[in-house]
Design goal:
By secondary structure, this protein is mainly alpha-helical. The protein is 67% helix and 0% strand. The N and C termini lie far apart (66 Å).
């Protein structure tokens, strides 16, 4: 197997998340090598292969049904795995990227699993609403320069309203509360202290700052 596949097949672990996905993805990656193994002269001439156990392994590897199912499962879980890795990252904060990442994840599942995405979306939506959904995610998304300028989020009144609600909740007695709206406008127009962010500089290189 190592000669045909170039390495071992990754097996599910006891402590890492998404281990079933990792194992199935590894199998799919080495599909051709595994098929070559079971069709090789050495395997055909191997006397111990004539058992029920080896046949139960050989049959799905050389057939198509098993691989179709593996491909379907990987197509569903892969976008979820990408988001899980992003959230599990201890180096880069994910708060400002989680909200759009969930939307992109659902879109990817719809494309990769057109026959299954509805029930998968139902599970994701249920988990999001019960455990993850919070105004902070939307506010952080709105204030993330990576998305704010490229997607023109300033025009999304629902997101602006959430930002104001979060600010009111966190700083109910702040003396500068009356100027918060104008600070958001400065952020949108990339003026003052908001000019220094790399994403802002990139945006300003392509288009001039808009006036009120």
């Amino acid at each position: 197997m190592r000669e045909r596949c170039g390495r071992d097949i990754v097996r599910p672990g006891a402590t890492r998340f998404a281990t079933n996905y990792i194992a199935l993805s590894s199998l799919l990656k080495h599909k051709q090598g595994l098929r070559e193994l079971f069709a090789s002269h050495d395997y055909v001439e191997w006397k111990k292969r004539l058992t029920k156990v080896t046949y139960r392994i050989e049959e799905p590897v050389l057939g198509n049904s098993f691989w179709d199912k593996v491909r379907g499962v990987v197509g569903i879980i892969e976008p979820i795995y990408v988001v899980l890795r992003m959230v599990d990252n201890e180096t880069n904060p994910s708060m400002g990227s989680l909200y759009p990442s969930i939307q992109l994840m659902k879109e990817a599942i719809m494309v990769k699993a057109p026959n299954a995405y509805k029930w998968v979306h139902a599970i994701i939506d249920d988990r999001w609403e019960r455990m993850l959904s919070h105004p902070l995610h939307q506010a952080a998304y709105f204030l993330n320069p990576k998305y704010h300028y490229s997607r023109n989020l300033f025009e999304d009144n629902s997101l602006k309203r959430v930002v104001h609600e979060v600010y009111d909740h966190l700083f109910p007695d702040c003396p500068g509360k009356g100027t918060f709206g104008s600070e958001i406008v400065k952020f949108r127009n990339t003026v003052g202290m908001f000019e220094c962010h790399p994403a802002v500089k990139s945006r300003n290189a392509m288009m001039p700052c808009e006036s009120l």
